[in-house]
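Hallway conversation turned thread

IA: we were arguing at lunch whether anyone had actually written out Histidine--tRNA ligase end to end. Turns out nobody had. So, for the record, here is the sequence (412 residues) and right after it the structure tokens. Reply here if something looks off.
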Amino acid sequence: MSSKIQAVRGTQDMVGEDAARFDVVVETFTRVRRLYGFRPVQVPVFEFTGVFARSLGETTDVVSKEMYTFEDRGGESLTLRPEFTAGIARAYISNGWQQHAPMKLSAWGPAFRYERPQKGRFRQFHQLDAEILGSGEPAADVEIIAFAQHLLDELGLQGKTVLNLNTLGDPETRAAWQAALIAHFSAHRDALSTESRDRLEKNPLRILDSKDAADKALVADAPRIDAYMSAEAGAWFDAVRKGLDAAGVAWQRNEALVRGLDYYRHTTFEFITDHLGAQGTVLGGGRYDGLMEALGGPATPCVGWAAGIERLAMLLEAPEAEAIDAAVVPMGEAAEAKAFEVLQALRRAGIAAEQAWRGNMKKRMQKADAAGARYAVILGDDELAAGEATVKRLATGEQWRVALDALPEALR
């Protein structure tokens, strides 16, 4: 351990513009989720390790390499959440929320993965999350993707992201397609990368999103899911595509877009950007109808998505610096005492106000101007005697007297 007091690798401290960008993402998410009727949900930041091992799959990199797992004092194995969906699914089962289905839930907060930090990727990062639990209709897929598109539009990211869409079909479709993929890749096993040979045994669909140049040629010739699509799965995907068209959501088909675990069904999607280098996905999700059963709960159709707050924030235009409406400038002991009363009256009236604490009148006025205040509210002995304040419009230098009890209305 270093003797120097410093942040842990892969974490970050945010202030100023970075913090402002982060807040814009969260505030926009909160505003848009209300338009779509998604209710906020809070779940613990750590769970029993089995919750994530069963939901993410023992063979995935997240479970085998990236989770922050520890044993508590009672000997229980616990894990800091690497994502939200598993914890929300666990809460749905353990709290008996089935009686409220369908539920539209949203959350945001920190998540943790031990991976190599790089631009847009941290070991403690933050996610937005949206889930529809208990709805087994294509309309739910359309709804949650439309929510995602609306969020990105409200963040001003039109033209910076592209929606990639695919289907994994129903279990019948997926099983037939996976068998064809295994046969195809097994016939070219020696040409596969080491990682893809391992995936062939454990998670063959993951070969389709391999970044290895040797694998890409084999992936290009791999069987396509459409050749194995059942009538029901084809009708579902058609309904989703038509729904997105009706909702005005542009999309492009990406047949290599997959999710490796068996509980994923039908729709899968990602919003991709080319503005962040290698970290191309800013929001992704899909339908996971088999997850609740994998966790020991009842069969429950579900669809959801997650987005990285840091990555979205990096795409934003620089937000305007926060400014205050009024700076209270007290001069003298009596005015200092009165300033607290004036400040609270302004703030409770919805007016952002600060107090210039130190220095002579000139220095305090300079601080008020530097804080971006529109007005300076000057309190001195003369003003207090008259029950008034001198209000100065800092942009023009114009000033006038206002009765103290009329200040909030005058500044509003």
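OS: looked through it. The longest helix spans residues 17-35.
IA: good, adding that to the notes. The chain has two domains: 17-170+230-315, 326-411.
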